[in-house]
Amino acid sequence: MIRTRLVAVALAALAVSACGGDKTHDARLAKAGPNPSLAALMNVADPQIGDRKAAACKACHTFDAGAPDMAGPNLHGVYGQQMGRNRPSFGYSAALRDAGGKWDAATLDAWLKNPQAVVPHTAMMFGGISDPLNRADVIAYLRSQGR
């Protein structure tokens, strides 16, 4: 019941954060070119906008160094780390622990679009971010944090 409520809160926050407050979205998307690649989107991605767009994630995750885990692990410094291993004390699902790979831009892009497609049976209950520039902004935010 609590997990269902957290998912509902996260989805509502995502709907608000993904569509509002980014007056540069269309111009940045145009600058990335027609049918932009992830690399082109990352070239125009903005970590500060990504921080705002990650508001939905903050229903379940923390992002500050030293902050505790919540329903999901603290995501500070996750970029470049092994999947399912960034926070040793967090109880990751076996599916995520066993997935292998690292949280690079391509993996995060696929994950933020549809976590279940990347790691079937993951405990991550999130519907995804459909807009590719919104995903790139969140990835830029995660990448900007370092370790």
From TrEMBL:
Residues spanning the signal sequence: 1-20
InterPro entries in the record: Cyt_c-like_dom, Cyt_c-like_dom_sf, Cyt_c_1A/1B
Coiled coil (UniProt feature): none
Name of the featured protein: Cytochrome c
Cytochrome c domain: residues covered: 45-146
Gene3D superfamilies the record matches: Cytochrome c-like domain
SUPFAM superfamilies (UniProt xref): Cytochrome c
Keywords: Electron transport, Heme, Iron, Metal-binding, Signal, Transport
Source domain of life: Bacteria
PANTHER family found in the cross-reference section: CYTOCHROME C (PTHR11961)
